[in-house]
Design a protein that fits this description.
The structure is a homotetramer. By secondary structure, chain A is mostly helical. Chain A has helices at about 10-15, 15-20, 25-45, 55-60, 70-80, 80-95, 110-145, 165-190, 210-220, 235-260, 290-310, 325-350, 355-365, 370-400, 405-410, 415-420, 420-430, 440-460, and strands at about 150-155, 160-165, 270, 355.
Amino acid sequence: MTNEATTRLLDPLFTTEAMREFFSDRRTLQGMLDFELALARALVATGQAPAGVLTAFEQASKADAYDIAALGRDAALAGNLAIPLLKELTARVAASNKDAAAFVHFGATSQDAIDTGRVLQIRDALQLIDEALVKIGDRLAALAQEHSATEMAGRTWLQQASPITLGLKFAGYLDAIERHRARLTEIRGHVLVVQFGGSVGTLAVLGAKGPEIAAALAKELQLALPPISWHSHRDRFAEVASTLGLIVGTAGKIARDVSLLSQTEVAEAFEPSAPSRGGSSTMPHKRNPVGSAVILSAATRVPPLVATMLAAMVQEHERGLGGWHAEWETLPEIFLLASGALYHLSVIFDGLAIDKSKMAANLAGGNGLALTEAFALALTQHEGRDGARKIAEAFSRTAVETGQSLRDVVLKDPQMKKYFSADDIDHIFNPKHFNGSAESIVAAVLAARAARKSASKSGEGKS
Amino acid sequence: MTNEATTRLLDPLFTTEAMREFFSDRRTLQGMLDFELALARALVATGQAPAGVLTAFEQASKADAYDIAALGRDAALAGNLAIPLLKELTARVAASNKDAAAFVHFGATSQDAIDTGRVLQIRDALQLIDEALVKIGDRLAALAQEHSATEMAGRTWLQQASPITLGLKFAGYLDAIERHRARLTEIRGHVLVVQFGGSVGTLAVLGAKGPEIAAALAKELQLALPPISWHSHRDRFAEVASTLGLIVGTAGKIARDVSLLSQTEVAEAFEPSAPSRGGSSTMPHKRNPVGSAVILSAATRVPPLVATMLAAMVQEHERGLGGWHAEWETLPEIFLLASGALYHLSVIFDGLAIDKSKMAANLAGGNGLALTEAFALALTQHEGRDGARKIAEAFSRTAVETGQSLRDVVLKDPQMKKYFSADDIDHIFNPKHFNGSAESIVAAVLAARAARKSASKSGEGKS
Amino acid sequence: MTNEATTRLLDPLFTTEAMREFFSDRRTLQGMLDFELALARALVATGQAPAGVLTAFEQASKADAYDIAALGRDAALAGNLAIPLLKELTARVAASNKDAAAFVHFGATSQDAIDTGRVLQIRDALQLIDEALVKIGDRLAALAQEHSATEMAGRTWLQQASPITLGLKFAGYLDAIERHRARLTEIRGHVLVVQFGGSVGTLAVLGAKGPEIAAALAKELQLALPPISWHSHRDRFAEVASTLGLIVGTAGKIARDVSLLSQTEVAEAFEPSAPSRGGSSTMPHKRNPVGSAVILSAATRVPPLVATMLAAMVQEHERGLGGWHAEWETLPEIFLLASGALYHLSVIFDGLAIDKSKMAANLAGGNGLALTEAFALALTQHEGRDGARKIAEAFSRTAVETGQSLRDVVLKDPQMKKYFSADDIDHIFNPKHFNGSAESIVAAVLAARAARKSASKSGEGKS
Amino acid sequence: MTNEATTRLLDPLFTTEAMREFFSDRRTLQGMLDFELALARALVATGQAPAGVLTAFEQASKADAYDIAALGRDAALAGNLAIPLLKELTARVAASNKDAAAFVHFGATSQDAIDTGRVLQIRDALQLIDEALVKIGDRLAALAQEHSATEMAGRTWLQQASPITLGLKFAGYLDAIERHRARLTEIRGHVLVVQFGGSVGTLAVLGAKGPEIAAALAKELQLALPPISWHSHRDRFAEVASTLGLIVGTAGKIARDVSLLSQTEVAEAFEPSAPSRGGSSTMPHKRNPVGSAVILSAATRVPPLVATMLAAMVQEHERGLGGWHAEWETLPEIFLLASGALYHLSVIFDGLAIDKSKMAANLAGGNGLALTEAFALALTQHEGRDGARKIAEAFSRTAVETGQSLRDVVLKDPQMKKYFSADDIDHIFNPKHFNGSAESIVAAVLAARAARKSASKSGEGKS
């Protein structure tokens, strides 16, 4: 069930329901309650509390039962959410088992609950991000394979340069997605840790038992136990943010490409169409690239939010003032936007409409200049590199000025006739002969991915 | 009535209910409906539509009657909110008056409604910001007056430097607040304009009547009419964002000061205390500076959000892809955070607890070095400027190393005894004699404010 | 003379020589020396120092004579540039006039010199920015006039929408440039003020004479005198930064347009070509849009730098730690990038190559769907608005699917034949008949500009 | 030799000479020349070029011999640095060996040289960053050990909370530094790769030999060979930026702490003093924390620069327009600032002056409230948790209001006398008895570090 109270008007456009759920107010509270319950279990496990208290904790640890709006109002006074939540939790535990109340939050500080609860949310959220990447990667792998040899114009500085294949473009996307998956594995190792230090990180209330209880708590939550609490050392959360920033950057790069390809004058690829998708309030013919718009919006919004997380790292002494607070809404926002961007990317690749004939036509258009480099290369044997370049440059200028294709300019030139037969010219100006290693690069990207996949599976088998 | 669907868990902490209301989903819709109603009226006023259609429009223009969640879901498909809203509005208008439906949104484009609706929200929101600034300014003016001569340490680079008065500090805050008010006046002149261009800014659907209808529309909404629509020129909204960024920057500066003054070891000023305010989950003695935390959090979050608005200005052709979308949640977020920051600033100054005796004690503490510059100045007549500086430096080092006050070091020095009588020394080391023009500067700031106020009143009278 | 020591490798690409000069190390020093000289003159003017000291100051106040690298090294130890500069200045003044040395920096603090020096640089730099805007505005006004009726496709969400004129596009650029000029006028009124407060803002060293000397200083520098110093209130500088951010945002928007128009498949407008401009290391035919690249780079870099200036506003007490330092290189960087962006914009508009026939051809291409809205409007009288929209949508789909123009689809439809004569169809599908108020909007923008110009001239005459 | 042309006035303050050297203009050129030389060697190694050409390449590949300013000027026209550099390189190679010139840059594109050259700079720069982290880590480990039991106040929300030890604070810093070192190892694996794709990533000019030559090139440069070139996929560089952002964030956190500890009223720790270090232009007693100022400045400036790198990831098609250019100066700037921040951190810890007695005094000050939690814990056995909390809260309020220490309030209370003997009270209010696991946590952090070190050494031995 989605917590409707956290659904903003444009959430359906900008994010996914699953990610909204993971960062719903209810789940934020649940994360904290999960921490408190696990702490109670750790106290029991280490002999600090009688086992009998747990029933009261278990009953009181369902976020659904709490009045979220009231907690929000009280948090405004207290300055954090844990204080009113703990008050309420204590009352509920006490209501079932008076003695149990003494163990609520024992030895912990507000930030222990808030941060660890957030880590639990991050664990789920990173899993969701990874699943989205896997889905996109699978689709891209299929597309890269399918279009390994589909000719199209390569474009640099927004102008046609030399031919590529569509598969090469997809392989570039795929390889970036794969790098992000590797990063997710690394940062999970960094961030999936418990926060537990008590008021100033000494676990003083627990006396000598602190480390043992901390270990039991971490085990309970299936999180790693760092050697020291990290109340005012926020690199773990900031790293999650920046990794999501990298992912959204890739999504933005792809969306920019897709939206450029779907321009009226280019018309090589289009976002999937669906009834009502991308309509216009006034122009019946419009099919706006909604997915690209959302992704590009995320790629505009997320980098500054990452900067917020980095700037917020400057936290004072044992627990900071303001910096910590700046994280609370920012990190979820980054997850929400990243999830929305990946969702739209997934939709795009699931139904991308590709017009191979328009790709070929565009490649032949623009005075056929996309083969200039190919021509210059062929000419090198006759004119040397520098000479070839100069002739190619002159011919391409002539082509533009006279409205001919470069091929025709070459065909008409007496000197070129001496160098090249008509068959030579056909060969030179066939983009299939100037896509170099495109197909083998696609194969290499796919092979590297397959190798990682099988390594990962065998790794799973072992662990 | 607050739109509960837009109240996030921590909104009560980070923003104000009034601002939340202005940027609630309901008010966002209402802004668009107000645009559509005004357009219908403009069509009537210019003879393009019969007056009889207006009743249907008026009935259909209450946002409360719309299913916000459903519109949000449909916006996800359409890519913007106007499309589903217009569909629904048209149906409602048609239900009361079939002929009226033809005039819904006539000549306009989605962005006309969305942007103008946002301008209407901004108008209310800027008013709220200005009222908050006035309230803070009034309080600061009183405080500056009251403490014009209250001695305290001036601190530079986080160290005691020379004496100031508390009034001077407040006057500095006040003057910044006043500058922001002047900015608000300026940007209102920039941003309170209608957006109306039709699909590509030509008002083509309206034929030759476009400009006349546009003028009627602007009049209806009491907004200015710019000479050209600004669908992909976003400087107006970005300027609102950056002006709020400046305001939050000042709030952050003040909150940093307040939080530093309330450190345990400084203890010169404290946020107002109230039951449950700033409590700790584990430490009964804690009175956390909640207001400062919220403000500093805003001062961390808003600058990157301003960067988002600036970066989003790069919008393509007649209406952009992604940049426009990036604004939708960002600008409201900035208003929400700014409003929350100003609210907490207001609370702080309403109840700031000031400990004048601790100010005096701190000024005398730190080996009394805050009077070093005063001493060096007095010594100049005897030793020249460079000599005085060197002696003052040596004496201050001695004071620190021997744990004496600088005054005592001076008193014990035979050469100084020749230069200065005991009365001289008393005079030199009395901070009251080394706060220079503090009091007249406070007076000047207050006078400048009073002059602006009276000019503004007489200006109001005239216009 | 440009200070070569501050010319970085890519400065010629990213900025202008004039702006580099204004923010050269030498000019930074000169600004501080100008402050110190003006202060000496103010001391003389107010009878605090004998007139005879000025010669020594004047001789010592040439930045060229200082060893910049050595000052930089000493600043690393001192923490700011003023300290080593003042040491050296004092020595030089003393060398010519021993008594004069006592008046060096009298009553001032390092930050007074550094900030006021910066204000002097800003004054020059804003003038340069304004001149660039005027130049661009003049050119845009001419272009808007010339192309007031030049038909081209209006594009929204990166797709053809309905026709506009090229003049309308230029008028949109122009109006934004004009808004920025108005902003420059406003912020000059805010930022061109002296910084003078002494160590903690009290002018204590000057005793009761402080305000009088401050007034003389401001007069000397032709800067306004604010009622209070602003050592730790940085809104003025941050506002300069954010205003430049707005300007660069507009430049980025325009560069995005230009680069999209010059895509191989669009080919409607091109940056001016020149030998070696925008060449490729390998592709002889490439003419890369260098100007757009530089401007878009600036539009990516400047927004976060503005965020830095805003974030740096949180400065502690009477003079801050770190925030102030964060401004030193950031504000000049923003000016440098803004100047470079405007320079390239100016170059682009000075030589923009416009292909009107390609504009017409593109407008007719894309299955001629850019006239769909025009067709739907015409059809409304027969089918009502909703019916017309549905038919237009269906026809435009047919056009795409069958590879025909929309016009041909309409021409072939029996029902349409009943509604429209061939002449009607010609009329409907002539983009000249569907650019609405484009020409009158262009005229309005130009008229508004002319009115401002003449108001500004008559204003100058009066003042 | 530092390239003076790239030394800006404040470089000595904000960065290190070593890092400046790594990103000097000369080294930027050298990186590109190293790429070109390695490519020539790869062509020879794969039989594409005769071995005899290499001498000419070797002779022409010294950046010192090039006219940097002239290249910068030509880059302004060409749009990138590679074009003029290659022109000059070709001329130089040709001058020694006419035939060799044909192999210059063969098969490569400008971006291959620029990006790979940058990777080579990054390799050196990351090594420098890592060495700085090692140095700081070593020092922190010693400090943590030494002060494992040094009592001081733990502070949360800028107020005294409960006792910690100074060693715990240092251990927190150390653990963060260690995490950053682990990140550096990870990102080296990501970023130390060759860029080689030719004009559009197909290596078309090299025909079927492309991959073989690419492998030889990578081997020559001792960089990894990715399966596909990454001209418009910039996650590798953006990740370097964000990792540096994390490091600077930690540095900023520490600098904030140090600057707070060195406030006049706190006076527990001070940056090392040295002649002229942190002096004031007017206040002889000032010892400004220059290192903290520089670090905090970096912590303000770097996060937005990271945002720039992330935002710049949205690059078009095969090679982007503007995004790539935005990286050129931004990534070096981040390295420069990070290096400067770590340098100052290193200086601070090398000479940090620690006043243990002031730490003890401050802990006892503030009405001794830092032991409130300890007292409440002790009281729990008598009053239950809730009761104890309430009494502690009331007593701490009394202490503040009456100006007594909490200890004295407790001592005087009749009920407390019943609960606690004077010895009990002594025990409770001795901070040594309420620092919990501080010492064992310090030991755990040091042990974890030692384990990693020995694992890393044994790993080195193996590889």
